[in-house]
Write a structure and sequence with these properties.
Layout lengths: L4 H17 L1 E3 L4 H9 L1 H13 L2 E6 L2 E6 L10 H8 L6 H18 L12 E3 H18 L2 H7 L3 H10 L13 H14 L3 E4 L4 E4 L1 H11 L2 H10 L11 H4 L5
Antiparallel strand pairs: 1-3, 2-3, 4-6, 5-6
Helix pairs in contact: 1-2, 1-3, 2-3, 4-5, 5-6, 5-8, 6-8
Length: 251
Amino acid sequence: MGYEAEEVRQSQEIFYYLLEHHELQEDVEELLYRAYAEQEVVQNLVKSQGDIAMCNIERYGNVIYLIPKEENHFLGFSKPQLKSVLCKSNATDKDYYLSQFVILTLLVEFFDGQGSSSKSREYMRVGQLQNSISQRLKEGVENVPEEEQEQAGIAFSNMMEAYEALRSDEKGSRARTTKEGFLHNILTFLQKQGLIEYVEQDEMIKTTKKLDSFMDWNLLNQNNYQRIRKVLGEAGEQRLPSAEDIGGRDE
């Protein structure tokens, strides 16, 4: 199939824009957005370039996103990179999987996967998130015997151990060796990825339109929704959370 030179040029311009900005909004770049949304040939060319770069190109509402695939460690994050960013300097795998558990817990607190929109609340306090993490870890340890945790591939006991090893600091320490600092670092990371708004002075967490769209259109179809609930020990088979559950940079 032959392509017009202008179609190729537009597709390249759109893909380069996505590489630079990670998203393309209709009200910011209307001409590029319309070229993608209204011209099937251009859209297919952009998606083809995405495949070569190990990315998915998805349009949710009036925004086009570049989403690195799970194995894309160039535009996304590898496990060692995430461990370095999210955890303390001498972190073990227990600490890493705890950080993934924290993020999954936050997602489930905001999104229930039901109704026309998956979002179930507008905001939550950091203290509420901390209590939810403690409760879910405790329930996992109590409801799943250690020998079954090993077989299922999710070690609630190990994550609980890592969580309890973090000190509590009522003064709001930002050190990653404290529960408060550990959560602060993860929330700051998610804010940098454009997924949440973290209002530090009010200790308040809100989700962004970017995360809301991704959850509504992609993650929280029933198959993926049940996958997350299982990770948190709420139903059936369980497994250990991984970096792939979170996705890549600016996803």
